[in-house]
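Dear support,

I submitted the protein below through the web form. The confirmation email said the job was done, but the results page showed an empty box. After a refresh the structure appeared. I'm attaching both so you can tell me whether what I see now is the final result or a partial one.
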Amino acid sequence: MIVSSLAGLFLPRVYAQETVNWMLQAQGQDVGNLIAAVVLLWSAQRYRAGSYRAGAVWLGTLLYVIYAFVVYAMAVHFSPLFLVYVAVLGLSAWAVIRHIDAFRAAPAPVPAAPARRLAGWTLIATGILFGGLWLSELIPATASGQLPASLEEAGLWVNPIHVIDLSVVLPAFVITGLGALRLRADGLTWAAPWLVFSALMGTSIVAAMLLIAGHGFPGTLPPTVMVSVVVLVSLAALVRFLAGAPQPARVPAPLR
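What the results page shows now:
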């Protein structure tokens, strides 16, 4: 992941076939990936030692990596990094599959009500916010028979971000948020990982917006501010959620 991200940032040929807009979005994701790599290594070490909280961070970071590399593998023109994208995607997906049962077997910690409400409503609001944004673009385009402007700028036939968000990620945010508010086990288990995902993905979007603004594209300030707020609130909710919950007596099996 580090190699592919550095190559994307510093080797022009990696994104040579993309539009400028899509190249800059990919490079913003590359910046986010470098941050995610640090978080992944740190949390893996702590999770291996038996920390449930680190396990939640590790799982959320892997969800971010899976999302990012589905986009690279499916929506970036073929390049020497294609097999790297597939390898990172496969390793991340199988890491989640291999360890999710052990993580879920640990009793989900129950934070105090204020921390739980903040986490739950943050996830619900984020899911509704981005769902509304995507649909506000897609529904008029569908009704008019015209391509959404974002597709033309990116040079895509469909946007994989719309697909993944509307079919999987944003429903998961809302369902998990509701579950956390209602003290359901799955909601309590998945709240922290999805908050980690939200913070990392938001950071990569902010990085992309800054790169796009630096190339003179207009209209980047409002989304940059909005997503920055989402990142900060997600981080605050994550810290309160994990700090307000005692470590469970039974922690996940260490990484092997």
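Response: this is the final, complete result; the empty box was a page-load delay. The chain has nine helices and no strands.
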